[in-house]
Amino acid sequence: MGLLVLLQVLLVAAAAARAPAARAWGVEGHYMTCKIAEGLLTSEATTAVKGLLPGWANGELAGACSWPDIERRRMPWSGSLHFADTPGDCKFSYARDCHGPKGEKDMCVVGGINNYTAALQDSSSPYNRTESLLFLAHFLGDVHQPMHCGRTADLGGNTILVTWYSTAKTNLHKVWDDKVIQTAMSKFYKDDLSTMIDAIKLNLTEDWCTEENQWTACSTQTTTCADKYAEESAELSCPAYVGVGQYSNLEDEYFFPAMPVVEKRIAQGGVRLAAILNRIFSGENNSRLQSL
Ligand SMILES: *[C@@H]1O[C@H](CO)[C@@H](O)[C@H](O)[C@H]1NC(C)=O
Ligand SMILES: *[C@@H]1O[C@H](CO)[C@@H](O)[C@H](O)[C@H]1NC(C)=O
Ligand SMILES: *[C@@H]1O[C@H](CO)[C@@H](O)[C@H](O)[C@H]1NC(C)=O
Ligand SMILES: *[C@@H]1O[C@H](CO)[C@@H](O)[C@H](O)[C@H]1NC(C)=O
Ligand SMILES: [Zn+2]
After folding, report:
1. Given its phi and psi angles, is residue 253 left (phi above 0), alpha (psi -120 to 50 degrees) or beta?
2. List of domains in the chain
3. Which residues lie with the beta carbon below 6 Å from any ligand 2 atom?
4. What tens digit of pLDDT does each residue of 151-182 get?
5. EC annotation (predicted)?
6. pTM confidence score
7. Distance from the alpha carbon of residue 283 to the mean position of ligand 4, in angstroms
8. How many angstroms is it from 181 CA to the middle of ligand 4?
């Protein structure tokens, strides 16, 4: 086999390995992010969002937030919009890192957030507004999952195979998408998603209430600040690699420090999504809201 052919085989294998996994937050993570956002919308934004939701969502944004993952096969062009991998220096740089697999400019999660925010803000945009809303809500979740700004070399942890509590074979990316959330649910929240959501919401009114204004603060009023969210994720991804090698077994000593990071990222994703939707649909520029 020639070197080029070998390289091609490896690339195809890598792409195949990535395909099912590279979604950032599994269904639960996206549901929680969007549920938290729903609780923080103004009445105008709630009405506008409900008006755009597809019928099958039954008026609930949270239930529709995994749509871009479900439809990803039908829309292969959207694949790279779910993440923004980095060289592993714990930093995200838009100019350097926000591109598609062939270097297509802006085709990363930050570009996607900017694209669909602008589309919803512009009533003359040719893009389908329902799809713009579902992409925006989904990508706000994705950009907060640290492994979605992980290293390009291991496809955001997808090629690092690990076992979880000596039983489940998985990879480092999926640990952050699903496993930490599922283990948290079973250890602390009676396997119940709404119990977990309530615990995170309680923190929004207590432990985090003094810092939440910072979460939505942005120096440039005109952007969504999505660069900042990706920078935070890139920074959080570095410690997530520490002590993890090929075929590591991860359990309590990995889970316990990871759980609060995951819960906070879900909270931040929700608060920021609400702030963006409120800004789009009711001209609000601050997300601090009455109705948690
Ligand atoms: C912007 O949205 C359109 C419509 O979905 C899509 O074709 C395009 O690739 C998107 N670009 C980015 C950077 O998200
Ligand atoms: C907009 O997108 C949704 C979801 O894909 C689809 O059901 C709907 O038919 C689209 N609307 C238009 C006008 O194309
Ligand atoms: C609540 O906030 C505290 C302090 O930041 C943190 O230790 C704890 O894990 C948080 N709990 C939840 C459910 O997010
Ligand atoms: C944004 O906030 C500033 C100060 O808080 C306020 O003066 C301004 O009217 C707000 N803009 C909109 C569009 O709500
Ligand atoms: Zn995704």
Report:
1. alpha
2. 3-282 (1.10.575.10)
3. 54, 128, 130-131
4. 999 999 999 999 999 999 999 999 999 999 99
5. 3.1.30.1
6. 0.87
7. 8
8. 37
